[in-house]
Amino acid sequence: MPDHCFRYKTALYVCKNSWGRQFLGFSMVETLPSRPWVQRLQRYRAWLILGLTIAVILGIRLRLRDMPLERDEGEYAYAGQLILQGVAPYKEAYNMKLPGTYFMYALIMAVFGQTPSGIHIGLALINTASIILIFLLGRRLLDTTAGLVAAVVFGLVSASPSVLGLAAHATHFVVLPALAGMLLLLETNVSSLKSKVSKEGGEWRETDDGSRPESNVQPSTLNLQLFVAGLLFGLSFIMKQQGVFFGLFGLLYLAFRRLHEPTELKVIDARRAKAPPIAWVAMVKELMVFAGGLALPYVLVCLLLWWAGAFQKFVFWTITYAREYATATPLVNAAYHLRAAFNVTIVPNIFLSLLSAAGLIMIWRDGRPRQRFFLLTLLVCSAASTSVGFYWRPHYFITLLPAVALLAGVAISRAQRLLKHNRMTELFPGRAIFGLLQLIIFHHVLLINRTSNAPTSTLCINCT
């Protein structure tokens, strides 16, 4: 109940403002009975909303599972089918992309069948895992509201025709391990700080993510976490070459973490009079461990293709030919491709762009250094991954969606705080931001619904 108020009826209260005038208020919280099931519902409401979002997206994708394969899907499916027949990639089918997506297609078709329906069911599960990971990532980096909004936005836009989201493009497979690697990087950040404070007998203050050390974390555990994080980013790279930018993001974030760690330790440990020196040796060791995990998937792919007798073709198609393809577009033609991408991809998502721009401004003004660096570096690296060759094809922007969705989560989380504290000077921006979120959801539901009404046909790819 607000200050200067007294209870009048069950959910009504009478308040006095600064001029002494009385007014009636209504409290929704007061009317809720304090029953155990209500408390449990409130405790898990974020997971309930996330589950509802996943159910909606799964329903859309499963309804359209029989839609014909897109051109790139046909390439991946044929390469995956050859793998199931024992033929190594690049021996009978050639493509400039790295073979990770081929192996994913082979796995999906082995489980769900060699049909468009089976491929799209596999994509639906991959997308569901990505939605859950981006929720966990947003909650760890920011708060529950930001994670939930990011998951809802990512789920809707990743299924939008504006990014060819219903087709199982390689960018979907690039995003999944990259998100898992980012989440593990944040865990290693907390574990490293816990280890350092606990080892020196310091006092741990609750940080912005609410974490407290329960026990001393061993260096071997941190190294294992870093290696697995690098391994996940390496898997993202072998799905498609553009995944290398996520690996670059991981290296930059690790370096920033070590450079900024002395300041964080001074804030966390109340006994420190000044910040400790930067641990340069530890930073180099961590970067080497992470880089080892990052390189391992590619090294294993090279050894596998060398053993299968396809290494020379692999090098030609994925390095020599891919380099020529990426540099074929003159810089003077880049503006034409960017304008086309703007009309096809950016304009249908204009409300999301505005919301993410608001989040970018807010994280720049009010964000903590670690959050600011994480989101801004992720945005730059993701934008670079869409710009290889200056083609900017619609499905390239799927790799940009995690950064954009997290920035949208920042905007809504900040707007929620503005409305909660009722700052009159910032009340209108807060309501405008919530209005943008409603427009995004409404617009993409209509867009996806219009696509779902299009006729579909079954196209079997099992040629044998």
Q: Which SSEs are present, and which pair or pack?
A:
Blueprint: E1 5-7, E2 12-16, E3 22-26, H1 28-31, H2 36-43, H3 45-63, H4 71-84, H5 100-112, H6 116-141, H7 144-157, H8 170-199, H9 219-239, H10 244-268, H11 280-308, H12 311-326, H13 334-346, H14 350-366, H15 369-386, H16 401-421, H17 424-452
Antiparallel strand pairs: 1-2, 2-3
Mean pLDDT: 79
Total strand segments = 3
* Helical residues, percent: 55-70%
The spatial strand order of the largest sheet comes to 1-2-3
Number of domains: 1
Q: Low-confidence stretches at least 5 residues in length (pLDDT < 50)?
A: 1-33, 197-216, 424-430, 455-464
The helix tally amounts to 17
* Oligomeric category: single chain
> What is the alpha-carbon Rg in Å?
25 Å
- Note the main sheet: 3 strands, antiparallel
| Amino-to-carboxy terminus distance | 71 Å
The chain-level structural class is: mainly alpha
Strand-residue proportion: under 5%
Shape type: globular
Instruction: List the helices and strands in order.
Output: EEEHHHHHHHHHHHHHHHHH
